[in-house]
Amino acid sequence: MVSFPELRLRRLRGQEPLRNMVRETRLSAAEFVYPMFVTHGEGVRDAIEPMPGCFQLSLDQLTEEVGEVASLGIPAVLLFGLPAEKDPVGSEGYDPEGIIQEAIRSIKRTTPGMMVITDVCMCEYTDHGHCGIIENGIVDNDKTLELLARTAVTHAQAGADMIAPSAMMDGQVWAIRQALNDTGYTDLPIMGYAAKYASAFYGPFRVAAGSTPQFGDRRSYQMDPANARMAMREIEADIAEGADIVMVKPAMAYLDVIRRAKDRFDYPLAAYNVSGEYSMIKAASRQGWIDGKNATMELLTGIKRAGADIILTYHAKEVAQWLREIE
Question: Burial level of 288, CB count in 10 A (0-12/13-18/19+)?
Fold first, then answer.
């Protein structure tokens, strides 16, 4: 083994072209999914206060934004809906004419090449803000499965390219896979939110989606942040139930879980760089405490280095533009 003074690792760092040539991990816009929030109305482009640069968009504004996303080389969007009305069973979520179903159709008319991934959960649509049906003060797992499956089918019928169940109900991937198969959508892929933690980093999203629980919290169904072995069991279960892609969420505080999953499972792996992670960088950057651009690039590179094949991130548009400038 050669050592100092013969070994001088700084030789590979002295010039930018050489640093670029030996770089081990490279970001690409082709790996990004851009999450978007869609609402009713016309001409609506409401800024999401804790998430600078993100908006609640009506259908006309959404399709315009999706066109910009496509022009940056980002291949996919993930849709979250804000219903006209909420009720205990989240009925707009599985309404064939609901906001997400209409959004899918609009995008497919205007930007047919864009991959449309739909989040399947109930928290945005229920008046109590939980991810399923409430019975005796708790979320009823199996009754919720029926509605998640119904929602997924309406998304498929509207033209969705991928279904992404995020409610963290046991059996959600199985229920959705069976429902899709039974209605002829055997080739429609599922990206399971397999290891989704009960995280403090979701706060800004709950403002954006209006999905804050009206009582209690989600710790009885989302994962304990202290557990990594349990995450492997969750991922294994989603794969066994028929998931085509599995996800770890959040990303930044769970890089070890991403790495474990990558080493253990020979499956495409997604990581969700969530709203709180995004907002922290934006807030610190606005205060001049960090270099926002470099911090963003470093964070996303770290997520990919940990093993993510797909990165869901609110930074997607700006990073795609930065990568073009580098090229």
Answer: exposed
> Coil, helix or strand for 163?
strand
Only one residue has tokens 């797909």, namely 310
Neighbours of 325 (CB within 10 A): 6
Q: Give the pTM.
A: 0.96
Amino acid residing at 176: I
Instruction: Select which of 196, 282, 304, 317 is catalytic.
Output: 196
* Residues linked to residue 133 through DSSP beta bridges, in sequence order: 140
Output the CA–CA distances (angstroms, integers) from residue 319 to 34, 69, 289, 298, in the order listed.
Answer: 11, 11, 20, 11
At 239-288, the pLDDT tens digits run: 999 999 999 999 999 999 999 999 999 999 999 999 999 999 999 999 99
CA distance 138 to 120: 20
Q: Is 262 a catalytic residue?
A: no
The one-letter code for the residue type at 29 is: A
Burial of residue 207 (CB within 10 Å: 0-12, 13-18, 19+) is middle
Q: Is 196 a catalytic residue?
A: yes
Q: What is the pLDDT of residues 175-218, one digit of tens each?
A: 999 999 999 999 999 999 999 999 999 999 999 998 999 988 99
What are 261's two structure tokens? 């999953």
Backbone angles phi, psi at 16, to 5 degrees: -60, -45
- CA-to-CA distance for 71 and 69, rounded, in angstroms? 5
Rounded Cα gap, residues 88 and 34, in angstroms: 29
Domain residue spans of the chain: 26-326
CB atoms within 10 A of CB 44: 17
**Among 86, 249, 282, 304, which one carries the catalytic annotation?**
249
Rounded CA separation 46/197 (Å): 28
163 forms beta bridges with: 118, 190
The phi and psi torsions of 281 (rounded to 5 degrees) equal: -65, -45
* SS3 state of residue 116: strand
Name the CATH code of domain 26-326 (choices 3.40.50.150, 3.40.1280.10, 3.30.499.10, 3.20.20.70): 3.20.20.70
